[in-house]
Structures are given as C-alpha cells and as structure tokens.
Amino acid sequence: MVKKRLIPCLDVRDGRTVKGIQFEGLRDAGDPVALAARYAREGADELVFLDITATNQRRKPLTELVRDVARVLDIPFTVGGGIGSVGDVEALLLSGADKVSINSAALARPEFIADLARRFGSQCVVVAVDARLVNGEWQVMTRAGTVATGREAVAWCREAADLGAGELLLTSMSHDGTKSGYALDLTRAVSNAVPVPVIASGGAGQPSDFTDVFNAGGADAALAASIFHFNETALPALKHYLHSAGILVRL
C-alpha cells in the first residue's frame, strides 16, 4: 500500500511565512528557509511553498527565495503562486522545485494544465483548488480565494485530472485556519471522483483530524500549516500517533 504523506505548507508574503484564518488576518509564522530546514529534519514527506500575493500583484514567483529554500531540502518540493507560463515553470524547476502548483492560471486557461503535463510530465503538475461552501455547494474560488468562479468543485477537480494534473491540492476555505478538522465530505467526494492523489488542506487542529481525513476523507496526503508552525503538534509525534492508529506512514 502507498504510504500517506504529511506536508507542511509555507504561505509566503513579503519573504516571510504567514498564516491566517480563511485566507484573512495573516500573522507572521517565521523565516521560510528556517522552517523548511526544520520540517525536513523532523521527517516531513514533502514541502509546499505558496507565494500567496504573486497572482494578485501580477508578478513572477520569488525564484531567489525558492532557491534558498530548496538548498536546505532533501524532500520533494512543490512551489505555487504567480505561475502563468511555461517559462515560469522552467524557472522554478531550475531554482530547485520538483513540482509546481497552479490555480488561477489553470482556471483561466484549462488547456494550460495539458500544456504543462505534456512538457514536464503529469507528476510535475499539481492543480490547487480553493473551495468555499456556498448555499450547500462547494464553489471554486480564484485569485487567492477572492473571486468566485461559478464552478462546482468536484466537477473542476475531475476536469483538471482529465487534462493531466498529477495531483490535486484541495483546500477548504471554509475550514482554513479554523482548526475544526478537514472538510471530509468534500475530500471524500473528490477522492472518489478522480484517479489521481488528493492532498487535503484546511482545518487541521489536532492529531485525530489527520486520521479522519485519511480514513473517512480518503485523502492520499494531508497538508497543514499553523499546527506545525506554532509547535502545536510536532511532526515526529504525529507520525507515531498515526502509525499507532493503523495509518501507513513513513517513520
């Protein structure tokens, strides 16, 4: 069986790691390079780096900072934010990223997913999906969660996978930063609908939330931020907890 993955996330603004609640009220969480080194040392399976203001500021990703983070890592490294062209992806891969995460550009031009999959391979292409629960339906948001697209989340995830996404990074904006647990219904619906791995994001607050998202949610990986950044749960302890609960993880 494939082992479940634990993935810390660095949301980066102005060169610093930040974390908020439902994408708002951001507070400083530390230096991204130092945090990356710590997570690699503690046994993170992968690391995700999201330049959260690049798209709305209409600028390129911070390749110099990506390069600094990559130097301290020996685990798979995904980078997102501001990616809009093949050239952007090439620059990030040359800076040390193993995979790229695309969101707004994929929604604006779904064929961009297929272009990247053909050029770099599906294993390099992660499509990030930010979803908010609106009137009982999971709606896809774009531009760092500020603009509604009118797309239903499960349908968009299925389309992205069909176009060549190798993984889906599925974030519930309704749960993000709340520490109330992952959106199990959304995660399960997407996991059942697509043939590619689903990374659940948004809502981790305690170790049992991870067992829930792996068992009831069907996720292949779980991404979290504040629970790790602010030392509420240590990665080694969480892995041993999951192992004792019967979840197959890399110790």
TrEMBL record:
Pfam families with a match to the protein in the record: His_biosynth
This enzyme's EC code(s): 4.3.2.10
A cellular component term, taken from the record's GO annotations: cytoplasm
Pathway: Amino-acid biosynthesis; L-histidine biosynthesis; L-histidine from 5-phospho-alpha-D-ribose 1-diphosphate: step 5/9
Cellular location(s): Cytoplasm
Alphabetically ordered keywords of this record: Amino-acid biosynthesis, Cytoplasm, Histidine biosynthesis, Lyase
InterPro entries recorded: Aldolase_TIM, His_biosynth, HisF, IGPS_HisA/HisF, RibuloseP-bd_barrel
GO molecular function annotations of the record: imidazoleglycerol-phosphate synthase activity; lyase activity
Enzyme class: lyase
Reactions performed catalytically: 5-[(5-phospho-1-deoxy-D-ribulos-1-ylimino)methylamino]-1-(5-phospho-beta-D-ribosyl)imidazole-4-carboxamide + L-glutamine = D-erythro-1-(imidazol-4-yl)glycerol 3-phosphate + 5-amino-1-(5-phospho-beta-D-ribosyl)imidazole-4-carboxamide + L-glutamate + H(+)
KW Protein biosynthesis (keyword) present: no
Active site per database record: D11, D130
Main location (coarse class): cytoplasm
Cross-referenced SUPFAM superfamilies: Ribulose-phoshate binding barrel
Biological process (GO), any one: L-histidine biosynthetic process
UniProt record similarity statement: Belongs to the HisA/HisF family.
Quaternary organization: Heterodimer of HisH and HisF.
Functional description taken from the UniProt entry: IGPS catalyzes the conversion of PRFAR and glutamine to IGP, AICAR and glutamate. The HisF subunit catalyzes the cyclization activity that produces IGP and AICAR from PRFAR using the ammonia provided by the HisH subunit.
Protein name listed in UniProt: Imidazole glycerol phosphate synthase subunit HisF
Organism: Hymenobacter sedentarius
Lineage: Bacteria, Pseudomonadati, Bacteroidota, Cytophagia, Cytophagales
